[in-house]
Amino acid sequence: MTPAPAKKPAERPYHHGDLRRAVLTAALDVIAADGPSRLSLRDLARRAGVSHAAPAHHFKDRTGLLTAIAAEGFGLLAAELAEAEDLKDAGVHYVRFAREHPAHFQVMFTPELLRADDLELTTARALAGDALRGAVASVRPDELGIDPRLAGVAAWSLAHGFATLLLGRNLDDPIGNQDPEDVFRTLAAMLFRRDA
Amino acid sequence: MTPAPAKKPAERPYHHGDLRRAVLTAALDVIAADGPSRLSLRDLARRAGVSHAAPAHHFKDRTGLLTAIAAEGFGLLAAELAEAEDLKDAGVHYVRFAREHPAHFQVMFTPELLRADDLELTTARALAGDALRGAVASVRPDELGIDPRLAGVAAWSLAHGFATLLLGRNLDDPIGNQDPEDVFRTLAAMLFRRDA
DNA sequence: CTCCCAACTTGTCAACGACTAGATTCCGCG
DNA sequence: CGCGGAATCTAGTCGTTGACAAGTTGGGAG
């Protein structure tokens, strides 16, 4: 039997074709523009040209939609971190991810919007966690001189804080129009410089 | 006809007394427990024992309430930072503030929930910004060896990221049951250790 | 071809934010 | 003391939303 990948061959008959993806994409637009609070399932349905209850069939409810977005985000983050060459570079990729997927990033770290026990979410998050720990392990222990677990927390905190403040437009003044990734490289160098 | 028999010592008079403070406090409870998204003006009114439209008189609308909370938060943060002795200590106080006022902290850095041009908010934020810059200025330039503005960004990013991840319960595994402030002191030491 | 089931629709309900008009109480000022 | 304006709170309403229930459509497996 053909697996029937079910791409979208039709315009918009009774069946939308790929409503799930359409709703996800529209949701990401709304969140990036106005935040998760202004997200409305009915609005997404309108944008997709379907009835007001159609999205619920794919995501159960609002929380389900946001959980799906977070899970997708952790998958994308894991892929991004996998490309990093060392811990400092992982931070750069972390910041890049936040800037390229601001909606995902925002939802991923707003736990009260998510179904914490969702399987897809927890596995995707674990994947991203593995990627981070892998980056930490790539540093020779004598290079940082402290518990590698704390080094991971330090790197994560610095990257997460920088990314969060950046997305919240809190760093516009201090860093002006410099490339954020370059600025972050400087910060990371402060954290991981070897003692002479 | 005398009104209904008084059930409790303080049967609700027509005027609440300090509804503004009561609504603020209740809102902080709700936000700390369930996040700003589950905040409902009508629910707060019920908790305070007033009609569903009463809170709007003090805060105009939902955004007004959240803006008032953020402004109060920046004031509290400025006071907390003013007690710091140096930049590293300012970070410790920043983390302490986030733990002691999680609801304020969350709202302060969720700009899409706030009225950005609100006067009280902008002045309070400026106050906190001054406090942070003051802490940065307390460091002798040769001690960090880089642009002091970037040092401020680094310190803020580290403290903000650590606090954010902490409140989101993302660091439960890595730091176990250690005192978060102690952990942060270690991280800050990484950032600001002098070369050689 | 038939039947099953996922995708989608229509209808409904309670809750909410926002707005309006009106009632009650407080307080400054004469 | 009392008067009048203003602050505070109530009551009613409207449009929107999330969630749910029940019915409809159509594609595809057998």
UniProtKB/TrEMBL annotation, chains A, B:
Matching entries from InterPro entries are given as:
Homeodomain-like_sf, HTH-type_TetR-like_transc_reg, HTH_TetR, MT1864/Rv1816-like_C, Tet_transcr_reg_TetR-rel_C_sf
Keywords, A to Z?
A: DNA-binding, Transcription, Transcription regulation
Asked if the record carries the keyword RNA-binding, the reply is: no
DNA-binding segment(s): 40-59
Chain ranges of the HTH tetR-type domain: 17-77
Tell me yes or no: is Repressor among this UniProt entry's keywords: no
Q: SUPFAM superfamilies this protein is in?
A: Homeodomain-like, Tetracyclin repressor-like, C-terminal domain
Pfam families assigned to the protein according to its UniProt record, in alphabetical order: TetR_C_33 (PF13305), TetR_N (PF00440)
Name of protein: TetR/AcrR family transcriptional regulator
Organism name: Streptomyces fuscus
